[in-house]
Amino acid sequence: MSIDPARFREAIRTIHAGTLSVEEAEAIVALAQLAVDADGREDPDEVKTFFTAGKAVYELTGMPDLPTPTFLDADDPDDRMRELAGQLRTERAKDLAYAVAFVMAVSDVDLAPEEGALVERLQGVLELPEDRAAELAATISAAITPPTGPVLVRAPPVRRPRLAPRWRGARGRDA
């Protein structure tokens, strides 16, 4: 599944309307990478989504041309998660970190148990209530999920069968 960069930027600006410090952006991108790495697999779409997400997050710093860094694997991902979460100073930054990590976990369509567990642990570390986490997941999912609704298809015109004329008797009346 690929991500629509414009819809993703709109979604993250809905979650975090202000600016981010470079340090907060780096922490958010590092948490996103933890989500990517959680299942031990990286498919090409997931990697592409990671860099698209990183670019959108860095745009919030006011320096959109910063390259999206990749980070070394941590010996203990939970310790690294707590360290990174500690760098997020505002609720909005924490919300954005959760949303970006969530979208990275589901971007390969197959949410592995390890990815689901990481997202749950991150929710706890960030102290996000369940309803807020669900709201953030729905908001950010709009960037990768095509809109639902009826698809309007124009039906071909209906051709009615031609009826045979009624037989008229010799006097011109219907028989």
Shape: globular
Write down the CATH topology: TerB-like
Through-space gap between termini: 68 Å
What percent of the residues sit in helical stretches (DSSP H or I)?
Answer: 40-55%
- Number of H/I helices: 7
Overall pLDDT level: 79
Low-confidence stretches: 149-158
* CATH architecture tag: Orthogonal Bundle
How many individual domains?
A: 1
* Alpha-beta classification: mainly alpha
CATH class designation: Mainly Alpha
Structure, explained:
With 175 residues, the chain is mostly helical. It has one domain: TerB-like (Orthogonal Bundle). 53% of the residues lie in helices and 0% in strands. It is built from 7 helices and no strands. Helix 1 packs across helix 3 and helix 2 packs antiparallel against helix 3. The protein is globular, with a radius of gyration of 26 Å.
Write the layout of secondary structure elements.
Layout: H1 5-15, H2 22-37, H3 44-59, H4 77-85, H5 91-106, H6 113-125, H7 130-141
Helix pairs in contact: 1-3, 2-3, 2-4, 2-5, 5-6, 5-7
List keywords for this structure.
175 residues; mainly alpha
What's the short story on this structure?
With 175 residues, the protein is mainly alpha-helical.
